[in-house]
Design a protein that fits this description.
By secondary structure, this protein is mainly alpha-helical. The chain has 20 helices and two strands. The longest helix has about 35 residues.
């Protein structure tokens, strides 16, 4: 009864004309930025973050969530039609989506992508509604030591997922923590690393870091493609965008099987849609009776990752709301927006601001319907945006980035910082240093420091306080395991390879 009452309350918030308007706007914008190569949901939210300053918190957060899962809906359009992924999580959609287009099945590919995304999001939203209250009740047992160890665990988990090197992940993490130390210390009032620049006394604005690392970096990264991408042939005229009974029969199983996997992966800090889609694709290929069809236009190979991708986006939002720990880089940006609005994410959000907490969760249901309406009937119209030449699109995005940052604080120093973070992001991309640990560190760096200090004040400076709670000990063990696991995995692989080498 309590869950039903909360759901109805959340729906009453979402269907308010203003909130519904911004939800629809977010779904449309998310579908657009998801389609455009190299943009992605994080960049889309970063670009629109200054707009949220003039909106009420509920409308702003509902819009940003809509951009997130709207981008998951729209991300596959570019993959299916051009074989160019809109973002990293859409890479897997190229494997069978583009071969379907080459076989004259673009309409079916677009349709099953939208339907799989819709089912994945609806099922994940239902799971989020059921799981939200138990998670928040558990989180009420958290004090400063537990929150500190929770954030340490999230940072360790995110850092350990660095694709090539754990060292690169820690470099990104330390850069993010260093950024959070700039400004006036909240407890002592001492200025830290301001270098005589008055504008730095309040720290570096989150929006500057995000837009620099995503929008400006994307422009610099894609500059070399300005002349080539616009000439890519693209199908712009479509017949009836729907699937046959046989195609639906083959798709429904993979959708239902991979939706819960995507949701569970999304809850884990630092994982994201790329891991979820790859796992979903590999799972379906392994259990398929015809694995040789995968990569050649198998509709199962498109349906499974699309469902996992959208359910993963919902899963990533849930820990952000209930625990204050984002499940992805995009969710970390939304967490920063919550804090900018003066709201404290976590269990108290459900008590003090239930209209925001339950409004966000209920918007996932309504947003799924809106996204389906936008992406299914209007697919033929929306994909025409892919024909915009990059030489026009990228300078426009760059102009919006600088304008958005300047209007947020009306400071020329922010423009210099934006350029610096854009160059920083470019070099991080070049040397394959992941940005997710940096983003997460910037978001939770200050709360991490404050929780640590509060814990020491409660214990008169003793570190034993972190071992007094079973929750803290468990979280520290998980953090240590996250760091040790990559080394243990590498050692086990070497051990398995050694007998093979000896036998040869």
């Amino acid at each position: 009864m309590e869950i039903a009452r909360n759901i109805l309350y959340g729906l009453s918030v979402v269907v308010q004309p203003v909130n519904l308007l911004w939800l629809t706007f977010g779904c449309i914008m998310g579908s657009i930025v998801g389609m455009l190569p190299g943009i992605g949901p994080a960049t889309g939210i970063a670009l629109l973050l200054p707009m949220t300053f003039v909106l009420k918190p509920a409308a702003a957060l509902i819009m940003m969530c809509a951009i997130y899962y709207g981008a998951m809906f729209g991300g596959s359009r570019c993959s299916i039609l051009l074989n160019i992924p809109g973002d990293a999580s859409s890479v897997v959609s190229c494997f069978d989506g583009y071969p379907m287009t080459l076989k004259g099945q673009a309409e079916a590919a677009l349709a099953i992508s939208a339907l799989a995304s819709f089912i994945g999001q609806m099922a994940a939203a239902l799971a989020a509604m059921v799981a939200a209250l138990p998670i928040t009740r558990f989180a009420l047992r958290f004090g400063p030591p537990e929150y500190f160890t929770l954030m340490v665990c999230a940072l360790a988990a995110t850092t350990s997922l660095a694709q090539d090197s754990l060292l690169k992940g820690f470099i990104s993490l330390m850069l993010g923590l260093m950024i959070t130390t700039i400004g006036i210390d909240l407890q002592s009032g001492v200025q830290r690393f301001v270098f005589g620049i008055p504008e730095l006394q309040m720290g570096i604005e989150f929006v500057v870091v995000i837009i620099g690392l995503y929008a400006v970096t994307e422009i610099l990264e894609n500059y070399k493609t300005l002349s080539s991408t616009g000439d890519t042939p693209m199908q712009t005229k479509f017949g009836r965008i729907w699937v046959s009974k046989e195609q639906w029969r083959r798709s429904i199983g993979p959708i239902l099987r991979q939706t819960p996997i995507g949701f569970l992966i999304g809850i884990l800090p630092g994982t994201g849609g790329t891991i979820a889609t790859m796992m979903a694709y590999n799972n379906e290929k392994q259990i398929s009776k015809h694995p040789e069809e995968f990569g050649k236009g198998a509709i199962e190979g498109l349906a499974a990752p699309e469902a996992a991708n959208n359910s993963c986006s919902i899963g990533a939002i849930l820990p952000m709301i209930t625990l204050g720990v984002p499940g992805s880089g995009t969710a970390a940006i939304m967490l920063g927006a919550l804090m900018i609005a003066g709201l404290q994410p976590g269990p108290l959000l459900f008590q003090h601001h239930p209209e925001i907490a339950w409004g966000i969760i209920a918007s996932m249901f309504v947003g799924a319907i809106v996204c389906l309406i936008v992406n299914l009937p209007l697919a033929g119209l929306l994909v025409r945006l892919l024909a915009i030449p990059p030489r026009i699109m990228y300078p426009l995005i760059l102009a919006i980035s600088f304008l958005g940052v300047y209007t947020a604080g009306f400071s020329t120093v922010d423009l210099y910082l934006l350029t610096i973070f854009g160059l920083l992001g470019y070099f991080m991309r070049k040397y394959e240093i992941p940005s997710a640990p940096l983003i997460l560190a910037v978001v939770i760096g200050s709360p991490l420091e404050q929780s640590f200090r509060q814990s020491l004040m409660l214990s008169d400076g003793s570190l034993r306080i972190f071992a007094r709670s079973g929750i803290s000990v468990t979280l520290l063990a998980l953090a240590a395991g996250s760091v040790v696991f990559p080394f243990a995995s590498a050692w086990m692989r070497k051990r398995r390879q050694q007998p093979t080498a000896v036998s040869h």
